[in-house]
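Record minuted for completeness.

…
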Amino acid sequence: MKIAIVRERFDGENRVAATPETVGKLIGLGGEVSVEKGAGLGSRILDADYAAAGATITPTAEAALKGAEIVLTVRRPAAAALAGVAKGALVIGALDPFGNDADVQALAKAGVAAMSMEFMPRITRAQVMDILSSQANLSGYQAVIDAAAEFDRAMPMMMTAAGTVRPAKAFVMGAGVAGLQAIATAKRLGAVVSATDVRPAAKEQVESLGGKFIAVEDEEFKQAETAGGYAKQMSAEYQKKQAELTATHIAKQDIVITTALIPGRPAPKLITKAMVESMLPGSVIVDLAAERGGNVELTVPGKIIEHNGVKIIGYTNVQGRIPTTASQLYSRNLLAFVTTLIDAKTKTMAINWDDELVKAIVLTRDGKVVHPNFVGAAIATDVAVTKAAKPAAAKAAPVAAKPAPTKKAAAPKAEAKAVAPKAAPAAVADQPKPKKAAAAKAPAEAKPAAVKAPAAAKPAAVKKPAPKKTAPKETK
């Protein structure tokens, strides 16, 4: 049972899917671990450390992947890069399938069983496998560290002989895993912390960490949480009321951290340009949703910008800014899941495809997209490819059918259906145009021209946008 770990190709990604600690445990499960040379350097892990743990260091990714039955990854790999893996190999990682239907379809055609760890159920048994929580926890911590670095002032209150330094005011928007860690970290640094969230349960959590809860607590607010513990998409009316409440609050803050992100959707806009301009110069905003467009109207993904003296931090891989710790937690998440796929006695893969954890995260299997959230998208992708191929076939038909006049008339019908299904009725209403074609015929051939006129009318209507090209074809 070969397990492969390769260097991440995603720009700016320094994490790695396995550490020497997890490599040793994977080998203990019966695996033969191959690690691409330099795979862990971004996380300060040397090849020698992997080798000491029992891994084989390969010079290229192709060598590491060749014959692999399990591929552990941080980001979704390109389907073409998996050409050498074993048939039906498991590709396990944060595959980010939303909005990437073509890539998911490509993984299916590559014959691998792609497993997206983001869909791990939020149940007690799977807590140790929850990559969203482990990585969000670190991003919330790092967001406060980044904010403090850009703030240019002290965070805690200081009583000195020269006078008192007031504490910084920090406002966290979104009290999920990342938000709660941001609250805790800002509080440790001495800031006066407040927070908001659309989930009712968050109020008690915020207050337990010493923060003040800010929210419009109406009926919609009371039902704003999914069964899985995620925040629901709020109505435009609620967002407007919440914006009015937070607008006045934001104007008094030194640091604002936004964390609102719903899987598979663009990040909701929480902070407008006007709100940014209401803040004092020197204030800092950290947008943890920058990778999905950002919660701040002015966010530029991947950059720090300054508007009216307010800095807006839009890093797109915040947890990747502390890769050593992030890799440690992420690799343990993967190890915990892989352990459930291997028989401890025989030390071979024994996947229970009906297991609730497996069913929840499998994207592709046996050449097909199988996850219920993406099956429809996969079908749509196939239909789009088929439709794109049809016009070429339709254009070829008239050339082959030239000797037979009857078939020549039928070919344009096929083309009309493939290119413009709604244009068929227009051909009936557009009868006057065939007169030009009839005028081009010799008088002696008046009868044949009359027979061909109805057939000629339909191509003329289909090719209405380019009449100049249609006319020569009618003459021929």
In short: The radius of gyration is 30 Å.
